[in-house]
Design a protein that fits this description.
By secondary structure, the chain is an alpha/beta fold. It contains 13 helices and eleven strands. The strands form four sheets. A five-stranded parallel beta sheet has the order 4-7-10-3-11, sandwiched between helices. Strands 1-2 form a two-stranded antiparallel sheet. A two-stranded antiparallel ribbon has the order 5-6. The longest helix is centred in the first third of the chain and has 35 residues. It is extended, with a radius of gyration of 26 Å.
Length: about 300
């Protein structure tokens, strides 16, 4: 028997014996990798009268499912977390997933911004809250901790009673009315970073389930083409948090920086405009060098700035 035939025969026998083991291990390893890569991808199946009417697959924040559960069960929720962590955009995705109209309002500084008012011509001027309350939908009150506490008593009454006396008459809450409040604090007053926040009435806080809403590292990776930029932002943010500095580096820095990187090659310029902002060089030096992933081009430039 020729040598090459013997080699081919032995090779085939070896492959036949070890291939199943290799295949099994490879499948297990691939399964782990796929689960890691897709853990922020959520598929939502919307049903009506027990029939599937819509399926949505999207990259979501890691608190998306928690918020979806609260809203779907008509539980008012308050999202508390840093600026630019994706609170309002996640609320919008939840509304879409549940087939609800989306209504949005910034901090309430006067009651009429919630209740609406009768103008000089006798015409009632509707608000986002009124429309959601009357017609159904998800109403998001952003920066509730920057609202005037007295004005929020209106929310307490509306949520508790299921109806409210608006300037144009009494309105019963629509069965599909839902509400989410977003805050940078826990409603206990300002802190070192969010100094202008108000302390909310205990009755207001008691109306909401509190959902801590931090920055989601996996979601942030999906926001930029340049993954090195994302790693730098996350590393720099960790440095700031460790030193309890009064400086915010949110997901917006990732998005804005990634846009600029398409047209701008000057990394230090981008760092100054998007990341450092009003920080003085002494502040930057006090943050210290980033020791992880030192081959990252952004970390290299940052460390050079610190060393000057």
């Amino acid at each position: 028997m020729k040598k090459d035939i013997i080699e081919d025969s032995l090779t085939k026998q070896i492959i036949d014996r070890i291939y199943p083991t290799i295949k099994e291990n490879a499948l297990k390893e691939c399964s782990v990798i796929v689960k890691d890569l897709t853990k922020n991808i959520t598929q939502v199946v919307i049903e009506q009268d027990k029939k599937i009417i819509k399926t949505i697959t999207q990259v979501t924040h890691n608190k998306f499912k928690d918020l979806l559960l609260l809203i779907n069960n008509n539980i008012p929720a308050m999202l508390t977390g840093g600026a630019g962590s994706g609170k309002s955009s996640t609320c919008e995705k939840v509304a879409e997933a549940l087939g609800l109209d989306f209504y949005f309002s910034n901090a309430i500084t006067q009651e009429y911004k919630l209740t609406g008012f009768i103008d000089a011509n006798g015409v009632y001027q509707e608000t986002q809250f009124y429309k959601a309350f009357k017609d159904g939908g998800l109403f998001v009150l952003d920066e509730i901790d920057a609202s005037v506490p007295e004005a929020l008593v209106i929310l307490n009454t509306a949520i508790a009673n299921g109806y409210f006396d608006f300037p144009n008459g009494k309105v019963q809450a629509n069965e599909n009315f839902r509400i989410v409040a977003c805050a940078n604090t826990y409603g206990l007053g300002g802190d070192d970073i969010y100094v202008g926040r108000n302390q909310l009435d205990a009755a207001s806080l008691d109306r909401f389930a509190i959902l801590k809403f931090d920055y989601d590292p996996e979601l942030e990776k999906s926001l930029a083409n340049d993954k090195e930029w994302v790693k730098f932002i996350q590393a720099f943010r960790n440095q700031i948090i460790k030193r309890k500095m009064k400086h915010i580096v949110s997901m917006r820095a990732i998005i804005y920086g990634d846009k600029l990187l398409k047209y701008e090659n000057n990394i230090e310029k981008i760092l100054n405009e998007i990341v450092f902002k009003n920080l003085e060089i002494e502040d930057i030096k006090s943050i210290g060098k980033i020791k992880e992933d030192t081959e990252n081009k952004f970390i290299k430039v940052y460390n050079q700035i610190v060393e000057r």
